[in-house]
Specification:
The chain has about 230 residues and is α+β, with helices and mostly antiparallel strands. The chain contains 6 helices and 15 strands. The protein starts with a strand and ends with a helix. The relative contact order is 0.15.
Length: about 230
């Protein structure tokens, strides 16, 4: 009995159809089990049975790894009562099973990774795996030259008990920089520049580990990661 599952549940798990949608599809004769049409969505089937919808085989999807170019105004959450979420930008079956590997603030843009592989996600977010994140930042004031040394040493943030880990700062122009950090404290990049007496006006994540935001992705667009990109997180 443990290997039995209702047809409507089995189909909804591997498609973007609700159970009501599956019931309608079954009544219409669109679903087959091992080659036989099954019209009752409550029918119990074996988990190993071959399911087809409109003649196309249905399979449990493997782990998914997605790169998204996050625009302004979206929150890095699966649900939010006030703002649109990054999941609203994803058009994939069972997208509610995806979670965000490395969140961005609502006013920060750029690279977001989504996956349903919990172990892989942990490697992205855990400081023990040394998965650095690189950001472009536009600052309110000119950056001082000694900021490179100060951030490399680590700075004290308000209400923190220890310095930040060493960060790499590249000065691009007077008030434009690229910064790479190896940890993910709350609003960390903004607070680091605040500790230097400056303010971040724009923040854009360009890179996570060895995964670089695809330049061809427009804001709000996404693509699946390549096998090489997936394997780079280890």
């Amino acid at each position: 009995m443990a290997n039995l599952i209702r047809l409507d549940k089995a189909v909804s798990q591997v498609t973007d159809l609700s159970r009501t949608d599956v019931k309608r599809a079954a009544w219409a004769g669109r679903i087959t089990v091992n080659g036989e049409v099954v019209t009752n969505a409550a029918t119990k089937i074996q988990v190993s049975d071959e399911l087809c919808l409109d003649g196309e085989p249905l399979h449990e999807p493997g782990p998914r790894y997605i790169m998204l170019n996050k625009p302004l105004g979206y929150v890095s959450a699966t649900k939010d009562g006030e703002h649109p979420t990054v999941l609203d930008l994803i058009d994939e079956p069972n997208k509610e099973k995806l979670h965000i590997a490395g969140r961005l603030d609502i006013d920060t843009t750029g690279l977001v990774l989504l996956t349903d592989d919990g172990q892989w996600s942990h490697k992205v977010t855990s400081p023990n795996h040394h998965c650095d994140k690189t950001y472009y930042a536009l600052l309110a004031e000119k950056i001082e030259e000694d900021a490179v040394a100060k951030l490399a040493k680590g700075v004290w943030l308000n209400n923190e008990k220890k310095r930040t880990k060493p960060a790499k700062l590249e000065i691009l122009f007077a008030n434009e920089v690229r910064i790479t950090i190896g940890e993910g404290r709350y609003h960390q990049v903004k607070r680091m520049f605040a500790a230097l007496g400056n303010k971040v006006l724009e923040l854009h994540r360009e890179k996570i580990g060895e995964i670089i935001l695809d330049e061809e992705l427009q804001e709000g667009d996404y693509r699946l990661l390549t096998p090489e990109e997936i394997a780079s997180i280890n």
